[in-house]
Amino acid sequence: MKKYIFKILVTGEGGAGKTSLLQRYVDDKFDESNVLTVGVDFFTKEITFDNVKCLFQLWDLGGQKRFRSLLNNFVMGARGALLLFDLTRMPNVNDILEWVNIARIHDLNLPILLVGTKLDLD
């Protein structure tokens, strides 16, 4: 059986719901008391499809500005990124572009998917 490993970045402002989304996806759990991620957290999810195993390494990048200088070290080798934003407090375009620049510092063509979160709270 073939096996592929994909490093996926999960980025966005602090409080956008990155950790909650990953916990729901990986463990099917939701914890309303999540604390802000300091630096980087790491999740894995393995999926088998058509006799091919895919291991997703999901890198939860903390959103606080004071930790952003550390993030350049963690984005190398990524195959894609999710850029989350909170629909209840829309970020400005410059904030989104800053995250795009962080994610693409080593690969200008890195695929990025914008994901609006917390629609159920609006």
Automatic annotation (TrEMBL):
CDD domains: Rab (cd00154). SUPFAM superfamilies: P-loop containing nucleoside triphosphate hydrolases (SSF52540). GO terms for molecular function: GTP binding; GTPase activity. InterPro entries: P-loop_NTPase, Small_GTP-bd, Small_GTPase. SMART domains: RAB. Keywords: Nucleotide-binding. NCBIfam families: small_GTP (TIGR00231). This is GTP-binding protein. It comes from marine sediment metagenome.
